[in-house]
């Protein structure tokens, strides 16, 4: 028990420090957002910076897709094994080729998104003519090469995931007892909930890009130097009657004409008519959130209660992703002039918060449905126990090998009645006694 607690401290303690640090930086940056942006955005004039920001921009678009395909693949493979073993009909036992349909769909999606994004990058007009990238005020070749490079990495990841799921994971004997599908649903919940919240906040605030707040200066300097012609009827980057003026700067806490822009939530061509850059929907950062979504893959590989220990390789992956990929993403987005520092910093502490929140919600929700399913179908008795501390108690279920956390609850006086209610709610009908519990626990608890 102590060993595992110390082991997980390599995540919990740095995670808590990182959360507090990110929140502190966010609060401080709220007063200096403009100054930070002016300083960092100067780097966009260099070719290397343009290549870097476009690569990170495309990386942020596609990076979580392989993880999502992995989670769905785990659920798909688990379901297929279940139907083969327990379904009364022989369809899945006699037609194993059906399982490959999922991977066919995944690679079809990959090919489709590759062609769609490349076609858009090559043929789209961002207001300055086909072949020109508005945000970097340069050729769209940077974006085309970035898409190709990111898509190569994505293809490698998809091939590795397909091989692992088909030839390794599907052959495991502990698929059901380890409940990998439960951990996959945690990851899917994290990704889905995070994006729903981010999209709602983006539309609610409608914060303009730094690019739009200095658009008139960009027209008179960078665009003029290129000899480009701006057509606001294609894409309106600026403000004023003709879409060439600077848009008003908005702090992150200032909604951009919220009531009048409610109707724009469901319009498809608002970027052609808007003159306050609401369509930039800058706050918070979806790309930063996407970077955290990749880390949800650790739900499958870290769980001390299921003997999935936190080792040096897993720690190294998490730390490298945070300090290299996340940091690069945040700076790139600000240099790109498509985000303010408060945008990316909010998404940072929000992303950290969503990990324990997603685990808490899904542990309770999924354990409820799993236990009710077992009880209804009379598969087995649901065993469980309660760990009581001074002001709270934690409920666990026991599947014969592992102790699975349901949730932690606060109490004021005697917790016995509340524990019984929680046990009943989760259909835990066999309460492990002290002597049985000590024998069963072994090294499986936190």
UniProtKB/TrEMBL annotation:
It comes from Spiroplasma helicoides. Gene3D superfamilies: Phosphatidic acid phosphatase type 2/haloperoxidase. Keywords: Membrane, Transmembrane, Transmembrane helix. Residues 244-360 form the Phosphatidic acid phosphatase type 2/haloperoxidase domain. Pfam families: PAP2 (PF01569). The chain crosses the membrane at residues 12-32, 52-76, 97-118, 144-166, 187-205, 285-303, 315-336, 348-366. InterPro entries: PAP2/HPO, PAP2/HPO_sf. This is Phosphatidic acid phosphatase type 2/haloperoxidase domain-containing protein.
């Amino acid at each position: 028990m102590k060993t595992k607690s110390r082991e997980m401290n390599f995540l919990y303690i740095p995670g808590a420090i990182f959360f507090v640090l990110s929140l502190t930086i966010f609060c401080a940056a709220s007063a200096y957002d403009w100054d930070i942006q002016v300083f960092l955005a100067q780097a966009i004039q260099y070719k290397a910076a343009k290549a870097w920001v476009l690569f990170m921009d495309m990386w942020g678009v596609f990076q979580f897709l392989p993880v999502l395909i992995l989670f769905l693949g785990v659920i798909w493979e688990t379901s297929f094994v279940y139907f083969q073993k327990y379904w009364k009909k022989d369809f899945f036992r006699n037609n194993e080729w059906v399982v490959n349909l999922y991977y066919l769909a995944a690679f079809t999606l990959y090919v489709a998104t590759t062609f769609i994004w490349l076609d858009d990058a090559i043929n789209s007009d961002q207001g300055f003519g086909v072949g020109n990238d508005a945000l970097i005020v340069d050729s769209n070749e940077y974006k085309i090469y970035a898409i190709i490079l990111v898509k190569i990495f994505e293809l490698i990841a998809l091939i590795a995931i397909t091989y692992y799921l088909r030839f390794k994971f599907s052959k495991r004997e502990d698929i059901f007892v380890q409940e990998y599908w439960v951990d996959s649903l945690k990851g899917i919940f994290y990704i889905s909930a995070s994006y729903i919240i981010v999209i709602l906040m983006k539309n609610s605030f409608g914060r303009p890009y730094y690019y739009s707040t200095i658009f008139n200066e960009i027209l008179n300097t960078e665009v003029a130097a290129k000899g480009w012609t701006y057509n606001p009827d294609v894409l309106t980057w600026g403000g004023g009657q003709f879409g060439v003026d600077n848009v008003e700067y908005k702090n992150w806490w200032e909604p951009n004409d919220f009531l009048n822009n409610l109707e724009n939530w469901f319009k498809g061509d608002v970027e052609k008519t808007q003159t306050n850059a609401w369509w930039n929907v800058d706050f918070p950062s979806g790309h930063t959130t996407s970077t955290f979504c990749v880390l949800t893959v650790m739900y499958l590989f870290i769980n001390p209660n299921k003997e999935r220990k936190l080792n040096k390789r897993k720690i190294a992956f998490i730390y490298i992703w945070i300090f290299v990929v996340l940091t690069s993403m945040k700076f790139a987005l600000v240099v790109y002039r498509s985000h303010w520092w408060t945008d990316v910093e909010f998404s940072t502490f929000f992303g950290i918060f969503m990990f324990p929140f997603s685990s808490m919600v899904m542990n309770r929700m999924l354990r409820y449905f799993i236990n009710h399913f077992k009880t209804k179908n009379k598969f087995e008795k649901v065993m469980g126990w309660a760990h009581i501390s001074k002001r709270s108690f934690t409920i666990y279920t026991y599947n014969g090998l592992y102790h699975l956390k349901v949730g932690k609850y606060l109490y004021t006086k005697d917790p016995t009645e509340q524990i019984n209610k929680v046990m009943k709610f989760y259909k835990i009908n066999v309460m492990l006694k002290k002597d049985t519990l000590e024998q069963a626990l072994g090294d499986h608890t936190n």
